[in-house]
Design brief:
The chain is an alpha+beta fold and 114 residues long. It is built from one helix and five strands. Strands 1, 2, 3, 4 and 5 form a five-stranded antiparallel beta sheet that branches. Strand 3 and strand 4 form a beta hairpin. The longest helix is centred in the last third of the chain and has 28 residues. The radius of gyration is 19 Å and the shape is rod-shaped.
Length: 114
């Protein structure tokens, strides 16, 4: 589920709010009997929010907190330090944050160069 809201203020100021919640359930009917997973089923929840504010079409600030929680499974997530879906997603989330930061920097530079 996701939602977005954008509000335009005077002098070309903009406030944007985005939110997303994802819930996943997985069942390991083949993996569990073979000993490839500790649990017969696992779940994961991801919650993300983002608030952006742009001043006079020149400078922007974005805050984007997130949380990922999931079932622990020492066999299925054996390469992860804490053996959970959360640890597996932390690297992807970090890469996503770097991409967001790079896009924000690009947007700021493209707006100021005109």
């Amino acid at each position: 589920m996701d939602a977005s809201f954008q509000y335009f203020l005077a002098d070309h100021d903009v406030i944007t709010v985005n939110g997303r919640w994802v819930h996943e359930d997985e069942t390991f009917n083949a993996s569990f009997p073979l000993g490839l997973s500790t649990n017969r089923s696992d779940s994961m929840d991801e919650l993300r929010g983002q608030v952006s504010s742009y001043w006079s079409d020149k400078i922007g600030l974005t805050v984007a907190p997130f949380d990922i929680a999931g079932s622990a499974d020492s066999l299925l997530y054996s390469r992860a330090a804490s053996a959970s879906a959360r640890t597996q997603c932390d690297l992807a989330a970090s890469a996503d944050q770097i991409t967001t930061t790079a896009l924000a920097a690009f947007s700021r530079s493209s707006m100021t160069s005109e």
